[in-house]
């Protein structure tokens, strides 16, 4: 990691995602690091990234990171699974602050949870086709581990439609997930920021499987990193509440409504961000 | 319409869409206007438009149209329902060639098909929320007509997943469409470029309803406009086959596979387009 001298522990944490799914990471951060200011950037003008080429994704990711760096963040969390999978190491080499993706924390949490060393992974088509979770889990595992990875592309539109628990979503979940029962996994890694909202329905299909949520795992690692670097913010002596700022590259009509679903509470204000202009 | 002097009847027809759904319009054009060269532009780097703000959509639409104008098209077809609904009249005022959207042709075809003057309209959330189909149908109708409009946002991801005829898609179709039976429509307008691929499953739910497909209706109106303006291309005397060129702002990994589904035949070559650079 290059020079980090301008970083101060009162600086905010920066989080970016292609859209608003990354708000599940903010939700977890607020719980696990309640003293920290957070700046969120959602690239809603170019969402989704998962269906785009590695070149386009890399260019977008550099622009998003620069946007947060310009706002003096002490840590960048790449909440986007696609970016974490496609170009995280290039980002880490190019910017002077620690950068944390969602893949490694999720992989470590899944390895910590499994007992029979059979792990299932679900994600968007881009995430699964890239094979990143499998590669990272094997690299961290050191011993043998069996991984079954499946893409579940309809889960994102179902969450965005708000069909979190109805017959259609249950049937889609059964179609995608039932083979995991035969394959005998004991742990399922939810490899997409949208999926924590489907935990209830996934549990109906896979009753005895431990669900590992990358958003929560990433927030826990962010705490470890900040503590390690002496950059964690202590509680305010004046009882000042932490500041949360939400930037979007396009102010979409129903952001507030859908955003609330992901963040778990209403979003008061959203600022239009010019990322690439 | 401003000055059209540089237009020649051997020039190509230009078609643009936010992504690849507009290939259903190209498919209809090839059938209805078999002598014409066609240039297709899919803005796959910024797809989808439907979830973005009117400002962003308008900017993207001007850039897409300019891209086609630079390639000397004699007619621009806006295959994107969102653009047709948000800023078609602004485009028409700003460019020196005829510009045709998908909304008016669809509306006219639905009015021609209905006998009981009760028309259903389905589309993405953006299309339905904008209320454009209702407004246009009423304007063209002159007499009373009853319109029931519903958004069916999961149809697009289901088509892209390739689930054109399975139990999940049937259940989604029933959930979205069954109330149309009670409402007694005799005609359903498919207000999205993806929906023609779901005609089979929609017919299972609405057995006695006439399905009107905007892509086919738009290709028919394109023929009428070119004929009227003396710009239709006569059959080649040398038996030269027409030229079809496909530009995408991002060359996505599985474009060829999904594109084939929409176009109805394989796509040989795709060119990367720099729209906004």
List the helices and strands and how they pair.
2 copies of one chain form a homodimer.
Chain A: E1 13-17, H1 23-32, E2 38-42, H2 54-69, E3 75-78, H3 81-86, H4 88-94, E4 99-100, H5 103-113, E5 118-123, H6 125-130, H7 132-141, E6 146-151, H8 155-161, H9 167-183, E7 187-190, H10 199-205, E8 210-213, H11 214-228, E9 244-248, H12 255-263, E10 271-272
Parallel strand pairs in A: 1-2, 1-3, 2-9, 3-4, 5-6, 5-7, 7-8, 9-10
Helix pairs in contact in A: 1-11, 5-7, 5-11, 9-10
Enzyme class (chains A, B): isomerase
Keywords (chains A, B): Cell shape, Cell wall biogenesis/degradation, Isomerase, Peptidoglycan synthesis
EC number (chains A, B): 5.1.1.3
Plain-language structure description:
- 2 copies of one chain form a homodimer.
- By secondary structure, chain A is α/β, with parallel strands linked by helices.
- The first copy, chain A, has 2 domains: 13-101 and 217-272, Rossmann fold (3-Layer(aba) Sandwich), CATH 3.40.50.1860; 103-214, 3-Layer(aba) Sandwich (Rossmann fold), CATH 3.40.50.1860.
- Helices cover 44% and strands 16% of the residues of chain A.
- Chain A is built from 12 helices and 10 strands.
- Chain A has helices at residues 23-32, 54-69, 81-86, 88-94, 103-113, 125-130, 132-141, 155-161, 167-183, 199-205, 214-228, 255-263, and strands at residues 13-17, 38-42, 75-78, 99-100, 118-123, 146-151, 187-190, 210-213, 244-248, 271-272.
- In chain A, helix 1 crosses helix 11 (214-228), helix 5 (103-113) crosses helix 11 and helix 9 (167-183) crosses helix 10.
- The longest helix of chain A is centred in the middle third of the chain and has 17 residues, at 167-183.
- Chain A is globular, with a radius of gyration of 18 Å.
- Mean pLDDT of chain A is 92; it is low at 1-5.
- Chains A and B meet through helix 6, helix 8 and helix 9 of A and helix 6, helix 8 and helix 9 of B.
- Chains A, B: Provides the (R)-glutamate required for cell wall biosynthesis.
